[in-house]
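Hi there. Long-time user, first ticket. I'm pasting a complex I've been working with (about 1366 residues overall). I'd like to know whether the download I got is complete or cut off, because the file seemed smaller than I expected. Thanks.
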Amino acid sequence: MTAVSARTGMTLRLEPQPGEVIDRNRPLEFTWNGQRFPAYHGDTIVSALAACGERIFSRSFKYHRPRGLLSASFLDPGCTVQVGDEPNVRGAHRRVEPGMVVSAQNVWPSLRYDVKSVNQVVGRFLTAGFYYKTFIKPQRLWPAYERVLRRFSSGGVVAKDSAHGYYDKRYAHPDVVVAGGGPAGMAAAVAAAEAGAAVLLVEEEYELGGHLRWGDAGQLEALRELRAAVAAAPGVEVMTNSVVNGRYDGNWLGIVQRNLPHVVERLVKARAKTLVVAPGLIERPYVFEGNDLPGVMLSTGVRRLVNLHAVKPGQRAVVLSANPEGDAAIDDLARAGVEVAKVVDGRRGPTIQRATGSRGVQAVECADGTVVDCDLLVTAVGWTAPTALLNMAGDRPVYSERAARFLPSLLPDDVLVAGGIAGDGPLEQLTEHARAVGREAAGRAAETARSLCAGIPQIAERRAGPPDPEPAVALPELPVEDHPALFFSGTRGFVDFSEDVTAKDLIAAAEEGYDSIELVKRYTTVTMGPSQGKLETVNAVAVLAAATGRTIAETGTTVWRPPYAPITLGALAGRIFEPVRHSPMQPWHEAAGATPLVAGAWIRPDSYGDPAGEVRAVRSGVGIIDVTPLGKFDLRGPDVPELLNQLYVNKWSRLDVGSVRYGVMCAEDGVVLDDGVTGRLAEDRYILTATSSGAATVQEWIESWLQTERPDWRIHVTPVTTAYASINVAGPRSRELLGRLVEDVDLANEAFPYMRVRVGRIAGVDGCFMWRIGFTGELSYELHVPASHGLRVWEALLERGADLGVRPFGVEAQRILRLEKGHFIVGQDTDGLTQAYGAGLGWAVKLDKPDFAGRTELVWQSRRDDYFRLVGLQPVDGSVVPPEASQIVLGRGIAGRITSSRMSPTLGRSICLGFVAPSLTGPGTQVTVRLPDGGEVAATVMPQHAHFDPEGTRQRG
Amino acid sequence: MTAAPDGAPQEHPSWLWRNPDPKPSYDVVIIGAGGHGLATAYYLAAEHGITNVAVVERGWLAGGNMARNTTIIRSNYLWDASAGIYEHSLKLWEGLAEALDYDILFSQRGVLNLAHTLQDVREGIRRVNANRLNGIDAEWLDPQQVADVCPIVDISPDTRYPVLGATYQPRGGIAKHDHVAWAFARAADAMGVDLVQNCEVTGIDVDRGRVAGLRTSRGPITAGKVALCAAGHSSVLAGMAGLRLPIQSHPLQALVSELLEPVHPCVVMSNAVHVYVSQAHKGELVMGAGVDAYISYAQRGSVHTIERQMSAALELFPIFARAHVLRTWAGIVDVSPDASPILGLTPVEHLYINCGWGTGGFKATPGAGSVYAHTIASDAPHPLNAPFSLERFTTGALVDEHGAAAVAH
Ligand SMILES: Cc1cc2nc3c(=O)[nH]c(=O)nc-3n(C[C@H](O)[C@H](O)[C@H](O)COP(=O)(O)OP(=O)(O)OC[C@H]3O[C@@H](n4cnc5c(N)ncnc54)[C@H](O)[C@@H]3O)c2cc1C
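Hi, the file is complete. Here it is re-exported in full:
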């Protein structure tokens, strides 16, 4: 192939056509398989190539047969191409752009030429027809086939360096969505808008108009009028090159929008009050031998090509027509200078036998035995109603023998149909019907709006609700016209072009016992390809019905599943709604050289370079740590104690103002869910804290109690995690340091003892509260200051404590400090089976409370003693730190695990927490820890969890 | 059927199964012709010689979750009891095509479970350590090793969900679900089991604490023993016999992309972000989500679950942004409180139960089928399913696999 230069290459371009969508004043160039090709603005990729005489655009999935144009629409199975880094682009739909880099997919070994050896190599794999069915035995050969088969896969290519584009989404709340912008859709949209509805009109093609666009002068005139009416109608938003992709409960619609500049796709999530489904009809291919040869086209495909793109589809044609659309195609062909060698009228008995040719149609054998040489065979044998959206709305369309297509049956109130999917008739009648549907849709939308408003408390007149609808008039009926039932001829051809499934395959499947359409579908993969059965479902059903001696109605159809048209993963993904979180002091930490730690949603300082030194600072002087991620909830209302009693295993009825209590939450299965302290700041104000990683779960847990179990409780819950910056000041000199900053709180031990909370002013910041608790085991204060002042208080602490040797410490130091002290961490030292007793929290469980979450399970557990228990452990060799998650073994079995382990700077030896089997819990017991490298170390079970200051004197000091 | 003399691949069998009407009476009736029902029938016939068996199915053969799952197979579960039953199953998978004389496209391409937080890392390492003690091929991989196994995972530290490591089970993989069902069906049918389609069970008759028979849309059937295999509808059926199960039925969604050339060599799962991805033999990406949070029997899910799952998936696999979703669907899965199955006897004599596999029962198809058949044949649990009794919810001896099974498959 040589490079084609612009203009002169378009040898099949016709003189200007009345309805053409190409702009001859705007030529452009693009490349196809590395060659340059000319085109006009408005061409699809494939119309441009066809204008230059190209006929083969892909190779088929299984047999690698050459494929060309069939329907010249989005659904065209043979026109899927790669555009740059975008795989599986519909080449007969996508408009070509200057410089576009287009290549064929599935071309191994080559698009143009059959390589004989290919069939020899793979023939044994494919002769049986089904893709996988040959590989039964022997199994050892399978891996080899797998490798060969993978060469065959026919998809597009995702490039490794594809950019990770972000896609936005839009939320829309139209009254009426009209799916389909043909004459019926346009008429319905205009009528709905005139009746006062806000309308969203969605059309798959680049322009409104549907089949009128490739129609005669009268239809083009009607098109102009309808477009003008849409443009003039108030409140119609038009979305072209967009598809209503799915209909979900409550008329929640997923719309994929592709007409925005610089945006590949956008997902529009529309909650429509009424949906009008007006997608027209899809022309159905005919099943006969050779029906997949390039040059076999549907009548609508030919008409699009000629009238929209001014491309001559062939030189000499045979036309099989069973309807007026087919007859119109004959006229179009004549006008385009195509010799119509023979017309076979499908309304009068037998049709055609087969098409023959090697890389395209060369001859057609008719049922009457004549053989006509030609390069184009046009078929017009009937229609498929695209009922996908109706299916998704719960409708089960019924087959009409007369019309030879499926018709809607029972629709929900918020879904209406218009146009060809609803019935037949001349254009006038269809648009008249559509207008009535549009008005009705607007009326029902207003009805819905009114009932919604009625359910919402009204604010004076401002929310008076929409105006009354017109009085209801019954929708006019549309006639259904007879259409011959033409599905397949006497020969067997392809039923599914994209999956390469033939009629023979379907018949064989039925004979093998796959006698239901769903089984046949799964077995042969018929209708499972890119068009999801829009072209092939009814043919498949018809072939199977004939093979099993049933009717089409008895055979039924398969279920259409969303999306209606493919959508990119990117558009579905959109942006992530999970922002990374950090405290107001994070910039300070970074400036101070802190190592960042990813802790769930948060980024936190792991350490400031010397965790052991940070530990020593806390034990001997004072340190401060940023604990902002701690989950915090502000609870108010008279029933807060009830809630606390329900959530926690502990008792809460008597918590004095100014007091703080530690609590343990269990799930219904008695498993430890979270822990934390709750303080009572005022008569009816509590602050509940949850672990940093558990905060989201706890919030959902609280909400589920308040919303579903006890809506009667008078409680307000406000999550205030990020409203406060939280700082723990820990160490024997913390009181001294705080004394320099706290203005109106008496810090003396008797005035502000352990487990108390005070509200006050810190470093000049009002509205702070502080409580005396701590994870480190030292005298410590947890300060909660309004977040915007967090950094100021943090800096003040460091500045005023410089002479005390105050140091910031990170999460790692805190982990060591708490492990020395034997405090467990939910989720690290517990797992999904750890009930309160196993974690050593039996003291907190108050079974005498009438009810609390997890009580039933805990009652059972309290009577047993066969559970693993959390214990303190010290390796016999104090220089060895067994990695966390090392297993404890007894003989060959698992008898526990190390949950936390560190070298203790304070004790100068390794320390651990771990779970051990019931038989190993006695203090002094030696257990065997299996290290990941297979080695083993011995460790001793300690009398308590705490390795340091077990009496807890330091924190009370 | 025997291999062709030259060892060349062989044609598909020309006949798969009969389509019989139900007989008035059977020794054993299995309810539900999903993977588990069919496998159970096969093992009853093949290993226990019990062939007067019917599998009754209200729809078409294996059209429930068996037709909807994402076919991930692995055995790297945490607890000894789980490791026992899933590893038993994996071993059966390894010889299944041979045993059933039908290729099931079992591809041991390896399964990665990614860790994104330190918590995931600890949990993953713990599971690897436990797996190894249970004789399961488990490995812990650091991020670079993850990239060696699956080069298209984004392991750069600045993604939203950085990969801190992964557990890896090389023997894990995928199989073709439909083929598995058909293979069991064909083999069971050949031994005389009746596969009765379009036959919905509408009642279970219990006579003095003992099961007596069934009422179905195709007439009553008396049965010596009745075995439930109804996955998402287990509670409904158990209710017919007066039993309340600790099971919640949730929609679980999955999707496939259009065909792509091979880019993804293994199976990648990420519990933390509720995503798993593999590429089927044909070239489509197969992806699944976590369960939809509400309880439902309608086989459809909500879009926002898919949206969330896609946004996480693209953080891990940015290169899929421009691939197209071809089809989404949902199945109804039977979720138990501890994410482990219920498999064994019930308070009703000769009524047996197999459910609670939730999001992950495909991988157990042969294993569950074989021990369930044993349980039915001997009216006593096999040692491998003894820990999965219904009673554990009253004794508290749970087998929590949320860590290993939460999203997971
Ligand atoms: C989207 C999705 C993805 C999944 N991914 C995986 C995965 O990757 N790996 C994995 O291991 N597992 C996975 N699973 C789970 C797995 O599919 C199930 O655990 C398993 O298939 C359940 O067993 P089954 O095959 O017997 O169920 P089913 O195939 O659901 O069989 C139950 C049958 O019972 C029938 N039935 C119900 N009620 C009646 C009645 N009254 N009368 C007669 N018949 C009745 C149903 O019609 C159905 O055919 C997934 C599930 C889903 C939905």
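A couple of notes from our side: Chain A has a mean pLDDT of 90. DSSP finds 23 helices and 49 strands in chain A.
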